[in-house]
Amino acid sequence: MSNLFGGGKSNNRPTPVAEWDGTPCRDCFSVLNVTQFYSADQVFNITTFSSLYTWVYELYFNRIPRKTPSDESDDDKGPSFPLTIDTRFKDAVVRYCGRLLEQSKLVAPNTESRLRRLPDLALYEALRLVDAMSFLDPELVKKQFTAIKKLYSLSRPSLNKRSNAYIFLEILEYFLHHGEVVLHDPDPLLRQYFDGFLSENFMDPIIALETLWFCLRLKAPLVQHTNVLTLYFHSLLKAAAWHPAETIYEFNELIPTFASPSTYLELFHALLDLPLLTATLEKLELERDTRTMPQGGSSSMSSNSVREMMSDKYGVLFHLLLRKESGVVINFWDSSQTLSLVKDFCRDVEVTPRIRALADTVPQFLETFFKVLIEYADENMLIALLPVVFERVDQLFPFKDFETRVRSVLVRNVLAIFQKFPHFIVHLKTLILEVIRDSHTTAREELVLSLCWAAGEYSSLNLTPQCTIQTLYDYDEALELFAFERMVMEAGDSSSQVYNTRVRLVVMSSVTKRSARWTPLASRVVL
Questions:
Q1: Residue 22 region, left (φ>0) first, then alpha (ψ -120 to 50), else beta?
Q2: Which of 8, 63, 377, 396 is most buried per CB count within 10 Å?
Q3: Going by C-beta distance under 8 Å and a sequence separation of 6 or more, which residues neighbour residue 43?
């Protein structure tokens, strides 16, 4: 067992071994020791450590029985599950990882550029192994937690470097996995990462993907023990807005964790306004490159760049789009403070390939959003959502393909909500009648047509107990007026003939259904 980490004898002639900073070796050999000629034991030490985590994970965390439950033979059965880790092996791994944690603090005076990252890589691997060992033996948590907390305190300044994102996340993961054992609150560290580090470095594709993978792996503890996903989803939205093609799957999986009774309306607006966010980030990158780094530089968003943009004529709009925390529900297209700004900004924006790619992903995000809400949200949340949906149908980023696909998703899910809660046709009667009567906007045509169909389908005394005779009359009057207006419009405009034909068919179907359910209305139906 000791030979696994270079403690055994070697037939090779020994050569001096130094620490990473050039001082003589102080303990057992590790991947962070330096020598002129490596012995066979030392090479074996390095290669073993490089594959050790995968071996431990597959052996103790990802076991698959060799026999199916229906196999009655007792011969050649696999080992029992789960396996118990050998104490000597565990102690050797923990000691070796502790050695690496100490060595990672050493600074090499002159190191080749290709080896400069080695201490960080070794530290990352050691942290993963310590995390795994702590799962296998919870008694290790108290001792190892203290060591890692000390490592974090000493390394805190360097953790703000973009190159150390994965180490930062691995320390976070350890604290989330084992913090309850020692009553440790991870919120300050989570705030440091999502509020500070991620907000400045989301343009780096590796950091964006590593963060999203971290959130997916730790989804359960993050949702159960923290509010980080509902509080900082805007920081994650920036990563999705900047890397739409690369992060579509991961972000789509995380959308349900962003929605809560206090954030779902804000999230809805944020998803619809993702093209605005992307355009803002592209403008930020362009101004940063023009003013501060004309010859290229780091893919990070500095606070200076943001402050410069806040002095722009669109500063109010940018300030809201680039916010880090949730808590502000705002519709840029309906606010007197931002309406003129957002219209002017959209006229100035060029539809870039990144915006086109994002436009393809937003409908998928909205489908996930509605699927979760329709299944899990209570009636009050959906009643509050529908007026916002009606409002946003014609308040979208002016890119034709994007508008068409998003409106289709919105209308389809409005019908899904009414199908699950038919009595909404009564509770929202005033709003629905207002939308039907104000049907002169081309962008709302499909929504109006769908509401006409829903009025005929669900305004029934039998199907919806809350429905009254007055409700039936109100809907009948609105539908007849709507149909008459479209007939008049058709006489003067042949371009809308197809839509007007659909209107007539839907209205005829709706009034016929209601007259069949309540005979006093039959005399008003003229075929």
A1: left
A2: 396
A3: none
- Quick: pLDDT tens for 443-480: 898 999 999 999 888 888 777 788 888 888 888 888 88
Q: Which residues of the chain register pLDDT less than 50?
A: 1-3, 8-11, 64-81, 293-296, 527
What's the maximum distance between 2 C-alpha atoms anywhere in the chain? 108
Q: Which among 148, 410, 165, 374 has a CA at the least distance from the CA of 256?
A: 374
Query: Does 363 sit behind a cis peptide bond, omega within 30 degrees of 0 on the bond before it?
Result: no
Q: Is residue 358 within 8 Å of 241, Cβ to Cβ?
A: yes
Residue 196 per-residue DSSP state = I
User: What is the Rg, in whole angstroms, of the alpha carbon atoms belonging to the chain?
Assistant: 31
Q: How far is CA 383 from CA 167, 265, 414, in A?
A: 44, 12, 11
CB atoms inside a 10 Å sphere around CB 202? 24
Q: Which helix (H) or strand (E) holds 345?
A: helix 339-348
C-alpha–C-alpha distance, residues 32 and 119, integer Å:
7
**One-letter amino acid of 440:** H
Joined tokens for residue 379: 């009636």
- pTM for the predicted model, two decimal places: 0.87
> Is residue 227 helix, strand or coil?
coil
Q: Which residues contact 134 (CB under 8 A, 6 or more apart)?
A: 140, 141, 144, 174, 177, 178
Token pair of 76 as six digits: 């050649």
**Category of 281 on φ-ψ map: left (φ > 0), alpha (ψ -120 to 50) or beta:** alpha
Task: Decide: 471 and 429 in contact? Cβ < 8 Å.
Answer: yes
Tell me the average pLDDT of the chain: 84
Residue 76, sorted as left (phi over 0), alpha (psi -120 to 50) or beta, turns out to be left
Q: Which residue has the tokens 């962003």?
A: 258
Q: Distance of CA 291 to CAs 281, 284, 297, Å?
A: 15, 11, 12
Write out the H or E segment, with its range, that includes residue 477.
Answer: helix 469-492
Beta bridge partners of 24: 18
Dist. CA 25–CA 12, nearest whole Å: 18
Q: Residue 136: what are its φ and ψ, rounded to 5°? A: -75, -30
The one-letter amino acid code at 303 reads: S
CA distance 306 to 311: 9
Rounded distance, CA 210 to CA 223, Å? 18
The DSSP bridge partners found for residue 18 are 24, 34
Tokens 């042949």 sit on residue? 494
The number of beta carbons lying within 10 Å of the beta carbon of residue 523 is 8
Confirm if 167 and 153 have CB atoms less than 8 A apart: no
Distance CA 41, CA 440 (A): 81
**pLDDT tens, residue by residue, 396-405:** 999 999 999 9
Query: Which tokens go with 275?
Result: 């093209």
Reading the block at residue 207, the tokens are 């950091």
